[in-house]
């Protein structure tokens, strides 16, 4: 017995202490596409991170308030920081060994190599512009007109605005002077000259008629602006007493842009169909601006870049089709031209093109250009060219995904089923010939590769190597890990992502054209209406049917009005019906021509902030209001939460430790309504029965901060939601922090009891015979903010569920086991034997974040807003996709992968064990046989 105990202890020591993901197992099933958004041209530049660096990095501040450093070699992100809420514009500048950026009221300096914060300063006003004086010393222009000098994060001096009515525009640095430019209402342009050393102000005014569409551009040597709605251009050389120089703008101009270096300024003209440039030289001694040359007009929507290299200024011109031209600053002669290896498809505009030019021997040049583009539906995509050849691209337009839908790929067996269906419509001889022909074709097509790959497949199986999928395209893999996520961008683009292949883009399609982009209202929802077909409902009242495998439009029809909401009705069969609610509560069914087999009940939001239930007649589609939900006068509806479309329930009850059963309150029509009251700082939770409008449960949370996120998710018979609570409620101390509440609905508060509906074969929710649930609730303090919640789902619903929580503070997603959030956890006592057998733990008011439950590991997820899940073919596995900023996908197994062998399973060891047992049996068998024979002789003799 003592020997057995020692052996058992040794075996237990060999077992893993925790159930965590090993380092070599991470990043195998998950994928991450880090996105930053559309680059701001004036805040994008090539910059050497250190003075002696051999190569530059690309630094950019985007419209999503993300400052990023990009490796120009492969387009990978070296580092990035989210500096605002994702909606604020900002500015960034290069400094010696650093990058300095300002968003809203914050100015921060980051190390150019690794992105570490060097210093930061926060102002009472928002920052309008900043310029680097030298080193890490900057001048900051605030929205109140003040100019502040900041040195290493400390304010050296502040120069107030000369006139509080002036509108600040920009800053320039020239020697020891800081120039501030202000637009004076009905007067002109004010130039404030400030000493960089003392902050002493001297000011001057220039007569100007600057309209809202006019531009003001400044550099170290010149300020240029347009007047009278793009009808005239004026130049003024800084640091001189010369007067402004006027240049007439050609007719038909719709936009004027400026690019400047120390000695050159380029004026970029745009018409509806053409673009060209005028290049001027700057004489700082005489204070004059002289025309150097003109570039002949080419196609519109192009971009110029003015680059200084050594003592020379170079100009690059990038066209929408990918062509590029390089010019010097002296003449219009083309120094070099670049033809792309493939033209940009579709209707593309070049938003910006930032170049780096390095002259080489024999009048050769190395030119790298970072290009940001915009096309209908896709805004902000970027790519880099090296001497005209595309090196890499980044799908930055997918940062604005607002809706998604899962698309199931075809089962490989369906390919054979189609052929069998063909054979079924032929006579016996024809079907036999067809099958022989098919088998012969398959043998010729797939046979050689199949036989050739046998040794490799056998070795991969024994060595536990990754087995590559033989099926591709629209055919799913064996375990159903490959699915398409069809997503819609805010600008009207559609894209299909293969989540089983690291989010690879399968196809892209635009729902809008450049002409109607201004009237685009967005995608309301995307549905898989039939196998391989998605239906897209837009707020503007247009319905599209798209081939989900090819990205081709099958149908485009007007719905008949602006869309308020929509829902898919599970009618069974191969196709689904989408019900759309239009203005005036009119109903439309999609695809057109669809019918209702029976009356439907839907819930819509009223124009007065209420909620109402409608009965839809299955013949006329006329609606009748069945109930309404009107919040209190000081309340407003914050959000509405439904159960997931795929939410199977494997068990109608929860088996307790003593083998009794708590029966779940199962109702497919459960609906959660969250309301907020800013006047009384409270949030209310209502669980409604959506057919009858009966309130099954309600909870009031006083002291809730309504300015912070309140989010919820539902599944089966339970609800999880979060909010931020204050430290005092009704003058009583309370738990300040983020609260996570779980509520679970049962038929009765006692085990083994059923509700009155149990024996009923039919019941009517409108008659009120649905019973009232018994609700168990518990609340926890969570250590950080949660902005989105989701729940895992599997094919049959047998696997334990996990609650997925998005935490922006740590840029991660955590998976909380539902067992951890069981509201029946014993309070202020240890669980008894039955509760321990059930898996219940003692209630603890605070939930700690287990690092092992972070499903994105060390990957940093920025800007994500939504988490959606779908089941795989394996019951143990749920597929996750998160979007809204970065794109992230992974697979989780809440109950461990119980239906598939893991990578650690050694087939070689298994075969070796079998062979060893066979050899052992071979040796032992003769001995046993001899012993049996001898025993028989002994029995006979005895």
UniProtKB/TrEMBL annotation:
Signal peptide (from-to): 1-20
One of the record's GO cellular component terms: EMC complex
Domain EMC1 first beta-propeller: 20-396
SUPFAM superfamilies: Quinoprotein alcohol dehydrogenase-like
One GO process term, biological-process aspect: protein folding in endoplasmic reticulum
Transmembrane segments: 908-928
Keywords: Endoplasmic reticulum, Glycoprotein, Membrane, Signal, Transmembrane, Transmembrane helix
InterPro entries for this protein: Beta-prop_EMC1_1st, EMC1, EMC1_C, Quinoprotein_ADH-like_sf, WD40/YVTN_repeat-like_dom_sf
ER membrane protein complex subunit 1 C-terminal domain span: 715-937
Location in or out of the cell: Endoplasmic reticulum membrane
Topology term for the membrane: Single-pass type I membrane protein
Family as reported in the entry's similarity comment: Belongs to the EMC1 family.
Subunit architecture: Component of the ER membrane protein complex (EMC).
Protein name as catalogued: ER membrane protein complex subunit 1
Source organism phylogeny: Eukaryota, Fungi, Dikarya, Ascomycota, Pezizomycotina
């Amino acid at each position: 017995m003592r020997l057995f105990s020692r052996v058992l202890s040794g075996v237990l020591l060999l077992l893993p202490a925790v159930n965590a993901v090993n380092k070599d197992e991470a990043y195998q099933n998950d994928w991450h596409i880090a996105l930053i958004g559309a680059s701001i041209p004036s805040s994008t530049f090539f910059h050497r991170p250190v003075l002696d660096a051999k190569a530059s990095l690309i630094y950019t501040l985007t419209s999503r308030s993300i400052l990023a450093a990009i490796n120009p070699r492969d387009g990978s992100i070296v580092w990035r920081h989210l500096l605002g809420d994702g909606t604020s514009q900002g500015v960034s500048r290069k400094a010696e060994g650093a990058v300095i950026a300002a968003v809203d009221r914050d100015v921060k300096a980051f190390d150019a190599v690794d992105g570490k914060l060097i210093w930061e300063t926060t102002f009472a006003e928002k920052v309008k512009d900043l310029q680097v004086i030298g080193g890490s010393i900057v001048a900051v222009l605030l929205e109140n007109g003040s100019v502040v000098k900041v040195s290493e994060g400390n304010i050296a001096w502040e120069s107030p605005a000369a006139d509080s009515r002036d509108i600040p525009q920009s800053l320039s640095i020239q020697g020891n002077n800081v120039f501030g430019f202000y637009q004076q209402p009905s007067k002109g342009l004010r130039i404030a000259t400030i000493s960089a050393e003392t902050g002493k102000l001297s000011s001057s005014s220039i007569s100007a008629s600057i309209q809202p569409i006019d531009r003001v551009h400044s550099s170290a040597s010149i300020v240029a602006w347009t007047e009278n709605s793009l009808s005239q251009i004026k130049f003024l050389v800084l640091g001189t007493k010369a007067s402004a120089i006027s240049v007439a703008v050609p007719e038909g101009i719709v936009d004027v842009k400026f690019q400047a270096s120390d000695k050159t300024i380029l004026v970029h003209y745009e018409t509806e169909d053409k673009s060209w440039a005028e290049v001027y030289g700057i004489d700082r001694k005489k204070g004059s601006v002289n025309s150097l040359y003109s570039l002949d007009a080419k196609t519109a929507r192009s971009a110029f870049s003015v680059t200084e290299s050594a003592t020379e200024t170079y100009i690059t011109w990038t066209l929408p089709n990918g062509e590029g031209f390089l010019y010097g600053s002296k003449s219009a002669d083309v120094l070099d031209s670049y033809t792309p290896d493939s033209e940009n498809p579709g209707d593309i505009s070049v938003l910006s093109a930032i170049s780096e030019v390095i002259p080489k021997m024999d009048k050769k040049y190395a030119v790298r250009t970072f290009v940001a583009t915009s096309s209908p539906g896709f805004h902000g995509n970027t790519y880099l060219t090296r001497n005209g050849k595309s090196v890499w691209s980044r799908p930055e337009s997918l940062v604005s995904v607002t809706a998604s839908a899962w698309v199931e790929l075809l089962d490989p067996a369906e390919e054979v089923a189609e052929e069998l269906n063909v054979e079924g419509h032929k006579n016996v001889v024809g079907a036999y010939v067809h099958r022989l022909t098919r088998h012969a074709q398959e043998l010729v097509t797939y046979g050689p590769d199949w036989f050739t790959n046998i040794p490799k497949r056998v070795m991969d199986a024994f060595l536990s190597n990754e087995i590559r999928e033989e099926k591709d395209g629209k055919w799913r893999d064996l375990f159903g890990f490959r699915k398409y996520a069809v997503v819609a961008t805010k600008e009207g683009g559609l894209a299909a992502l293969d989540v089983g292949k690291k989010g690879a883009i399968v196809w892209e399609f635009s729902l809008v054209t450049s002409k109607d982009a201004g009237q685009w209202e967005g995608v309301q929802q995307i549905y898989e209406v039939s196998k391989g077909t998605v239906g897209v409902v837009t707020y503007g009242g247009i319905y599209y049917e798209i081939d989900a495998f090819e990205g081709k439009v099958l149908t485009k029809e007007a719905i008949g009005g602006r869309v308020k909401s929509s829902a898919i009705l599970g009618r069974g069969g191969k196709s689904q019906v989408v019900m759309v609610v239009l203005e005036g509560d009119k109903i439309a069914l999609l695809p057109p021509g669809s019918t209702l087999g029976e009356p439907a009940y839907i819930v819509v939001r009223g124009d007065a902030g209420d909620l109402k239930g409608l009965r839809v007649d299955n013949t006329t589609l006329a609606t009748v209001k069945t109930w309404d939900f009107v919040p209190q006068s000081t309340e407003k509806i914050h959000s509405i939460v439904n159960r997931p479309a795929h939410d199977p329930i494997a068990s109608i009850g929860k088996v307790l430790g003593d083998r009794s059963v708590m029966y779940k309150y199962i109702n497919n029509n459960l609906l959660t309504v969250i309301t907020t009251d800013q006047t009384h700082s409270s949030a209310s939770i209502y669980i409604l029965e959506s057919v009858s409008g009966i309130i099954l449960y309600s909870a009031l949370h006083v002291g809730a901060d309504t300015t912070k996120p309140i989010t919820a998710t539902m599944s089966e018979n339970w609800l999880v939601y979060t909010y931020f609570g204050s430290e005092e409620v009704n003058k009583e101390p309370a738990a300040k922090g983020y609260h996570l509440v779980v509520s679970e609905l049962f038929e009765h508060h006692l085990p083994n009891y059923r509700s009155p509906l149990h024996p009923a074969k039919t019941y009517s929710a409108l008659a009120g015979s649905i019973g009232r649930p018994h609700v168990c609730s518990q609340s926890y303090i969570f250590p950080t903010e949660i902005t989105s919640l989701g729940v895992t789902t599997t094919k049959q619903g047998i696997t334990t569920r996990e609650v997925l929580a998005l935490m922006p503070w740590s840029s991660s997603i955590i998976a909380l086991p539902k067992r951890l959030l069981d509201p029946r956890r014993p309070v202020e006592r240890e669980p008894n034997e039955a509760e321990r057998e059930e898996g219940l733990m003692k209630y603890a008011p605070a939930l700690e974040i287990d690092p092992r439950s972070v499903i994105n590991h060390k990957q940093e997820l920025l800007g994500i807003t939504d988490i959606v899940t779908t089941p795989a073919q394996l019951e143990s596995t749920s597929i996750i996709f998160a979007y809204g900023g970065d794109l992230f996908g992974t697979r989780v197994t809440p109950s461990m992968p119980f239906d598939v062998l893991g990578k650690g399973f050694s087939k070689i060891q298994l075969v070796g064990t079998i062979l060893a047992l066979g050899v052992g049996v071979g040796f032992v068998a003769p001995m046993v046989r001899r012993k049996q024979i001898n025993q028989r002789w002994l029995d006979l003799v005895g």
